[in-house]
Amino acid sequence: MIWMLSFFQGFSSAYAADVARSDYMIGAGDLVRITVYSSPDLTTEARVTAAGTITFPLLGEIKIGDLSPAMAEKKLVEGLEQGGFIKQAQVNLVVLQFQSQFISVLGDVYKPGRFPLDRPSNLSDVLALAGGPTPNGSDIVTIVRTKEGKTTKQDYDLRELLTKGNADNNPKVIGDDIVYVNAREVSVLGQVNRPGKYSVVGGVRSVLDFLSQAGGISSGGADKIIVITNRNGKTVKHEIDVDQLYRSADTKSNFELASGDSIYVPRTPVFYIYGEVQRPGAFRLERNMTLAQALSTGGGLTGRGTERGVKIKRMDVSGKLTTISANPSDFLQVDDVVYIGESLF
């Protein structure tokens, strides 16, 4: 990771001018330089007051706080022209120090915290301020930005930036951005004994490796698990048969996972059986299970039960609960409720 840290410390701010002239809003404490072409004697460096004002020759006190550099330039031009001082004035305003803006760098970096944006900066610059990503830091960095009351999240791939020089992954940052370096982790969720996030640091890690770290699939786990992978911005959903996964060393099922991937073990499909049965309760619904097999799973009927009194309560596609009569050879469906009535004789 040393080479990565060196990269961040030495990376130039390619977008400095764009940041200074478009997204940035001038604020209290900022230092600006104003140049008027053909009138070098008007060149001024001034620090913005708490009220958002500066003092400029000929115009006196003028408010530029909460304006972009381009908007402030326009205001200065209007003042010079309307005051009759300069015809067709050309003004250039540059923010030299950005004292009014701060950015937060959090997550797996060496020095997480809040830093002043004292110059136009991009992602690599602020990561360098925080010491760069730790060994457990992921290649994926998230920028959280709130603008005009709307919050957005955007992921950027440091690997693409470092290995391919892809500048799209080194965006400009603005005040109040939150930069979050994700951990090199895989999430294992659902019906496992220890759900959570597990580190990928330390070598190649397969699906079975992470299931093992999570304590294995619990008794309530389904026959198939879902693995979500993210590669080159593309999300793919894999459905893996558990029996095949454990029986076969085939990497088609037991493939390598990377940071940001996730494993989800769904709840096993169940059915419920109540009434005149030896062991009422919820049971695992096996594939192609018939009503007769379900009754056997429940220990069979009690002495007062009758197969003529068997009813199945089932939710239809509209969400309505229906009651149906069933034959012993009928297949059960997920979440069916089997009720065995009492014999009248």
If you had to describe this structure to a student in words, what would you say it looks like?
- This protein is of the alpha+beta class.
- It has four domains: 25-97, wza like domain (wza like fold, 2-Layer Sandwich); 101-183, Roll (Outer membrane lipoprotein wza fold like), CATH 3.10.560.10; 185-265, Outer membrane lipoprotein wza fold like (Roll); 270-342, Outer membrane lipoprotein wza domain like (Outer membrane lipoprotein wza fold like, Roll), CATH 3.10.560.
- It has helices spanning 2-10, 16-23, 69-82, 123-129, 158-164, 207-213, 242-247, 291-297, and strands spanning 31-36, 44-47, 53-56, 60-63, 91-97, 102-107, 113-116, 137-147, 150-157, 178-183, 185-190, 196-199, 224-231, 234-241, 262-265, 270-275, 281-284, 305-315, 321-325, 337-342.
Reconstruct the topology from this structure.
Layout: H1 2-10, H2 16-23, E1 31-36, E2 44-47, E3 53-56, E4 60-63, H3 69-82, E5 91-97, E6 102-107, E7 113-116, H4 123-129, E8 137-147, E9 150-157, H5 158-164, E10 178-183, E11 185-190, E12 196-199, H6 207-213, E13 224-231, E14 234-241, H7 242-247, E15 262-265, E16 270-275, E17 281-284, H8 291-297, E18 305-315, E19 321-325, E20 337-342
Parallel strand pairs: 6-10, 11-15, 16-20
Antiparallel strand pairs: 1-2, 1-5, 3-4, 6-7, 8-9, 8-10, 11-12, 13-14, 13-15, 16-17, 18-19, 18-20
Helix pairs in contact: 1-4
